[in-house]
Write a structure and sequence with these properties.
Helix 9 (215-246) packs across helix 11 (279-292) and helix 9 runs parallel beside helix 12 (298-325). This protein is elongated. The protein has helices spanning 25-36, 48-55, 66-72, 83-88, 110-122, 139-150, 169-174, 193-202, 215-246, 250-258, 279-292, 298-325, 348-358, 371-377, 389-393, 406-409, 413-416, 434-440; strands spanning 5-7, 17-21, 40-44, 77-80, 92-95, 128-131, 156-159, 179-183, 210-214, 329-333, 362-366, 383-385, 398-401, 424-427, 443-445. It has 18 helices and 15 strands. By secondary structure, the protein is an alpha/beta fold. 43% of the residues lie in helices and 14% in strands.
Length: 450
């Protein structure tokens, strides 16, 4: 039996009783989307306030379209704090709890371990435990041993890594490039047919290839995917740094190499690097996993180093310009780590703002969605949270574009130049066209772009 199998659909058994443990980005999106596919879903979370909001149809996170999808399929999804009673009524239990990074880069499995133990204690019959959380290799094996301590009957373990991007999570779930299913094997080397058929049926309405593989490979695929994409980002940023020194144009470089089908154009946008809850954590996690197995991932160490350096370089560029013109006020456009999310975890803006605050500069910030989250994170030192992009630009000596929200590309910059103190743009995402900005009257600096 081959180690990895690619299939295109499931047997079509119909809807299943599905339990989702955790209602964060992954758990909530998974639950709502599975309900939209016709399954009966119950989402479990210990956060009483969150459950109360969800039962009222209030989405506690910002994810475009999720609230509308929940409303459309409210009859097939419910929310509760009762894990024990819920597990006993489910046929498939998805674990989608947080697995944050520890200071040393290893993965904190505290929430997952608690979930597994509680599921095991609640089990009364056969169920499939599906891990959607990003976990180190070998977690599936550990889960089987842990559950067997409490439950002596039959059960199955499946690894089903998620590839959801904040801002496009619904599309990523319902229209993915692939669905990865890590399955346990029988003595003859074939995949256990019971979880295989049920999991294929759960995803039978999803028109994407289903990759059937062993659990350890599935656990590693998630890390490998994100680490590879992070590597592409850091690579093009290195090219941008060379362009800054040679006069080349990194956008032309990206077109030239992205046109090669072996490389592709995705994730070749030079800028301030990657952020969010996945790429930084997964790169660190894979480095730590490899180290735990006696191997040093030198490429990913360099990827990390380049990514962190991009933020430092950008902050230094702002300080250099301010020192030259004897300016003191910086406008920051964009706080979230990318557009269409309110997530500021590992967001470049947070690090850049804190560096400028430490240097004593005044900061004026604006983001369409992430303002409230940023207020909780940023020191209240010489910072003004503004109601609009124009207000943030008023009186600024430097306008720094940090997150490429569509709103910023639609702004009439001929109006913005009237309110800034000094017409200087430092574009951290190469959102604007240099010649257009210079024609309006701005002094323009991009990333690897003259």
């Amino acid at each position: 039996m081959p180690k990895t199998i690619l299939v295109t659909g499931g047997p079509g058994f119909g809807g299943h009783n599905v339990v989702i443990i955790g209602t964060g980005y992954v758990g909530l999106t998974t639950g709502v989307c599975l309900a939209s596919l016709g399954h009966k879903v119950i989402c479990v979370d210990k956060d009483k306030t969150k459950i109360e909001k969800l039962n009222k149809g209030i989405i506690p996170i910002f994810e475009p379209g999720l609230g509308e999808l929940l409303k459309d399929h409210r009859n097939r999804i419910s929310f509760t704090q009762d894990l024990r009673g819920t597990v006993q009524g489910g046929s498939v239990v998805f674990i989608a709890v947080g697995t944050p990074s520890l200071k040393d880069g290893n993965i904190d499995l505290t929430y997952l371990k608690k979930a597994v133990a509680e599921i095991a204690k609640a089990m009364r019959g056969y169920i499939i435990i599906v891990n959607k959380s990003t976990v180190p290799i070998g977690t599936g094996e550990w889960a089987r041993k842990e559950i067997a301590r409490y439950f002596k009957g039959e059960f199955s373990i499946v690894s089903n890594p998620e590839f959801l991007r904040e801002g496009t999570a619904i599309k990523d779930f319902l229209e993915p490039d692939r669905v990865v299913l890590g399955l346990e094997k029988q003595e003859d080397g074939s995949f256990d047919p019971r979880p295989k058929e049920i999991m294929l049926d759960i995803y039978s309405s999803v028109a994407a290839p289903k990759l059937l593989t062993d659990i350890k490979s599935a656990e590693l695929i998630k890390y490998a995917s994100n680490a590879f994409l992070a590597t592409k980002i850091s690579f093009i940023n290195e090219m941008a740094n060379i362009c800054d020194r040679t006069g080349g144009d990194v956008k032309e470089i990206a077109k030239g190499i992205g046109g090669d089908k072996r490389i592709g154009p995705q994730f070749l946008n030079a800028g301030l690097g990657y952020g969010g809850s996945c790429f930084p954590k997964d790169v660190d996690g894979l480095i730590s996993i490899a180290k735990n197995f006696g191997y040093e991932l030198e490429i990913l160490k360099a990827v990390n180093k380049v990514n962190k350096r991009q933020r430092v370089n950008f902050a230094n560029s702002i300080k250099k310009v301010l020192k030259k013109i004897k300016g003191e006020t910086v406008c920051i456009w964009g706080l979230s780590f990318k557009p269409n999310t309110d997530d500021i975890r590992e967001a470049p803006a947070m690090e850049i703002i804190k560096a400028l605050q430490k240097a004593g500069y005044k900061i004026q910030v604006y983001d369409p969605i992430a303002m409230e989250n940023a207020k909780k994170d940023l020191p209240k030192i010489k910072i003004k949270f503004c109601e609009s992009a124009k207000e943030a630009a008023k009186g600024a000596d430097v306008l720094a574009l940090v997150t490429e929200w569509p709103e910023f590309s639609e702004i009439d910059m001929s109006e913005i130049i009237k309110v800034v103190r000094n017409p200087i743009i430092i574009d951290g995402r190469n959102l604007f066209e240099p010649q257009e900005m210079r024609k309006i009257g701005f002094e323009y600096y991009g990333i690897g772009k003259q």
